[in-house]
Design a protein that fits this description.
The complex is a heterodimer of chains A (610) and B (90).
Chain A lengths: L1 E6 L6 E6 L2 E7 L1 H4 L9 H11 L8 E4 L3 H15 L3 H15 L2 H9 L8 E3 L2 H10 L7 E6 L6 E9 L2 E9 L4 H11 L8 H7 L8 H7 L1 E3 L5 E3 L15 H8 L12 H29 L3 E5 L6 H10 L4 E4 L7 H15 L22 H11 L4 E2 L2 H13 L4 E4 L13 E5 L4 H12 L8 E5 L3 H4 L12 E4 L19 H6 L14 E7 L5 H14 L3 E6 L11 H10 L4 E4 L2 E4 L20
Parallel strand pairs in A: 1-4, 4-5, 6-11, 11-12, 14-20, 16-18
Antiparallel strand pairs in A: 1-2, 2-3, 6-7, 7-8, 9-10, 13-21, 14-15, 15-19, 16-19, 17-18, 20-21
Chain B lengths: L2 H8 L16 E2 L8 E2 L4 H11 L7 H14 L16
The chains are: A alpha/beta (610), B mainly alpha (90).
Chain lengths: 610, 90
């Protein structure tokens, strides 16, 4: 039985194909169209899913859309009629939304022709899709399920329990009370882009002190002991406008106006970031605690945009509230395509067969891959110089390059589903000096960043370097401290923080300086030998050369660009930047040997800054 | 009646701008019971789904009629069927 899940028309469109409970393919549309967060009907993603399975459209048994546009319409109409104050905004906004959202079936049917008329087209519920993406892709048969995002149809937080019988929601919270929207509002206030800048706000928080957290709690959000909360809507404009916050009220509260994008970040914004991060972590903890009490489960699974907040996830892990935590790596809306398909599968199979209990997410390597033959054909046609090795030797050559301080673009295997690069579309390097952080930022990402890169560590060595409490972090979704034994300078030996984040970050704090944040934390990816053998071998070879089982791992793209999908995307990114080496499967290319690359002068304007 | 008039007429409850005095902001109940529905083929089905999937009764039959009349007259979404009578129970 083939089930196709689709998310589209909001942000991060995606498609996922499930066959008899196994994930065949899953991918975001942005990877094909090269438009970041592309929200269009995911034609390319659907085609990719079908090609991977080797089937035609008419062989699909069910198509399921990730959310219920009817209930979303309900929220919009209610917002306009009851909550809102600005009629002209709602009139314009509803007109636009009705013509796009109301047309969902038309859009889907334009892909599927008659399929929608054959009782094959179904709709799910936004938070149910998130919940299913967490429960059914996890290795657990039974778990407490926590979904937190900005908003689905009405729901903003959903606390559920899942087992072999299905997913039962225990309680939920509704719009406009949304911790996700509050976090996004602070993201915007601090000058970062909503839907992508939340990560930066999280990375900014360790520079600040949470001196505003009590003020925010007394004025903006009232947090109850059970983890529920009420927002004071005097401070928010998102019901009546495209703006999230009321600037006049916020300026008066914080004593500073909204930061303009790309301007210097003053210490007060770091303190605001630290404050909201503290509040988010408190809410997530309290909701998890309520779930624990309600379900008595030892396992927790999570999804929704807030589940990508690795710092909060790390605190939850440390609390030891649950013995096991699994977080869907595609926790944003792209992951709902998979969740909807898995939910449909559960509905159709639940009474007849037990579900697969393995980690069917397969390291989230669920996207397109290219054979060495395809790659060689491409390189030959383009007349690019390359060397092909068997894989053992390729790993040795790549490790040697890293050990010599080269920056390597690694393109191999199936592309990652979700926002993180996990060793198949990654830029990797030596983590032992801060110089690598600076080099990758300035010469490849073309930015100065106050955030360190993430470490990818051999799973067997992870607890030697990081305080992971014995768990693995295969999806780079946990932030935890670097072990004391790996630190080279404690705080007393460092220069005091004077507001210059880049200089402060540049001070060596650990043996793996390029991946250690100012609070001695790191966003860890543990690499498993069976899940990603090639990546594992490269790090293993690097460990043999250097004694360090860790590499820097960052996404293979320039700022604002979707992660590379094809060998052509990878080569273009390689040549546009000062990356030293490109690995396309086991073909290796060196920058200095490549023909002159013709680049448009304004290529940096091609992608909107994130 | 256009949508602006409709909104004006219905702007009768003000629950915004206030932090409510309550012990919990959670709403109980299994919202996932309604998690899977086939996509509506017609306006009648759409309205039926709208009503069956509303967790709370937020709008009256008459209000819904106004909304769908507005949709029919103003959106580019093509609706072939006539607006049905609202003789079902929300």
């Amino acid at each position: 039985m083939y089930i196709l899940g689709i998310s589209a028309l909001y942000h991060d469109s995606a498609a996922a194909l499930v066959k008899d409970g196994e994930i065949v393919a899953a991918v975001q549309e942005e990877r094909f169209t090269r438009v970041k967060h592309d929200n269009s009907i995911p034609y390319n993603s659907i085609n990719y899913c079908l090609e991977t399975a080797g089937i035609e459209l008419n062989e699909i048994d069910y198509v399921i859309y990730y959310e219920n546009p009817v209930r979303k319409l309900d929220r919009w109409v209610y917002s306009a009629c009851v909550l809102g104050n600005d009629n002209s905004f709602h009139s314009k906004s509803l007109d636009k939304r009705l013509t796009t959202k109301f047309g969902v079936p038309e859009g889907i049917r334009s892909v599927f022709g008659e399929i929608g008329k054959e009782d094959k087209l179904y709709i799910s519920n936004h938070h149910l899709s998130h919940a299913a993406s967490a429960l059914y892709a996890s290795p657990y048969e039974e778990a407490a399920v926590l979904v937190i995002d900005a908003v689905g149809e009405w729901e903003t937080n959903t606390l559920s329990h899942g087992d072999s019988k299905g997913i039962t929601s225990i309680c939920h919270m509704e719009y406009p009370n949304s911790i996700g929207l509050l976090y996004s509002a602070v993201t915007a206030y601090c000058g970062f882009k909503v839907n992508s800048g939340e990560y930066k706000l999280m990375g900014l928080a360790p520079y600040g002190t949470p001196r505003f957290s009590k003020l925010i709690q007394s004025e903006m959000i009232e947090i109850k002991r059970d983890g529920s909360y009420f927002l004071n809507m005097d401070y928010f404009d998102f019901i009546d406008s495209d703006k999230l916050f009321n600037e006049k009220k916020w300026s008066s509260l914080f004593g500073v106006g909204a930061r303009l994008s790309e301007t210097e970040i003053e210490i007060i914004y770091m303190d605001i970031a630290a404050s909201i991060q503290k509040i988010l972590e408190e809410v997530v903890y309290l909701q998890a605690e309520k779930l624990k009490l309600a379900t008595k489960s030892r396992k927790l699974v999570m999804a929704g945009g807030v589940a990508l907040n690795c710092s909060s996830n790390g605190k939850l892990l440390k609390s030891e509230l649950f013995e096991h935590i699994w977080i869907q790596p595609a926790s944003g809306d792209a992951g709902t395509a998979l969740g909807a398909a898995l939910w449909m599968n559960a509905q159709k199979t639940i009474s007849t067969s037990p579900r697969v209990k393995a980690d069917i997410q397969k390291g989230t390597y669920l996207g397109p891959e290219f054979s060495i033959e395809d790659i060689r054909n491409y390189l030959d046609v383009m007349n690019y110089k390359y060397y092909v090795y068997d894989r053992d030797n390729a790993s040795k050559v790549i490790a040697d390059c890293i050990n010599k301080g080269k920056v390597v673009g690694l393109f191999q295997g199936r592309m990652e589903y979700g926002p993180r690069s996990l060793g198949c579309r990654s830029i990797i390097g030596d983590p032992r000096t801060q110089a690598m952080q600076e080099k990758i930022n300035l010469k490849i990402k073309y930015r100065e960043s106050f955030r360190p890169f993430a470490p990818a560590v051999l799973e067997e060595h992870a607890n030697d370097y990081f305080d992971l409490k014995g768990v693995t972090s295969p999806y780079m979704l946990l932030i935890t401290e670097v072990n004391q034994s790996r630190l080279v300078n404690n705080e007393s030996k460092l220069d005091d923080f004077n507001g210059d984040m880049i200089s402060y970050l540049k001070q060596d704090r650990s043996e793996i300086a390029a991946v250690t944040h100012v609070d001695y934390s790191a966003r860890v990816q543990t690499v498993n030998k069976n899940t990603n053998p090639y990546f594992y071998e490269i790090i293993e070879e690097f460990n043999d050369l250097s004694g360090c089982p860790v590499v820097v791992n960052t996404s293979f793209n320039v700022r604002g660009e979707p992660i590379v999908c094809t060998p052509e995307d990878a080569y273009r990114c390689f040549m546009r930047t000062e990356m030293d080496v490109l690995v396309l499967e086991n073909a290796i290319l060196y920058k200095e040997e490549q023909p002159e690359f013709e680049n448009s002068k304004d290529w940096m304007d091609e992608y909107e800054l994130d | 009646m256009n949508l602006i008039d409709f909104i004006n007429r219905n702007k009768k409850i003000d629950i915004s701008n206030k932090v409510v005095d309550s012990d919990s902001a959670y709403i109980n109940g299994n919202i996932f019971d309604i998690g899977l529905s086939s996509y509506p083929e017609s306006l009648e089905e759409f309205i039926e789904l709208y009503s069956s999937n509303s967790i709370k009764i937020r709008l009256s039959d008459e209000d819904l009629y106004e909304i769908f009349s507005y949709l029919k007259n103003n959106s580019s979404f093509e609706i072939d069927n006539e607006i049905p009578n609202f003789n079902y129970t929300l």
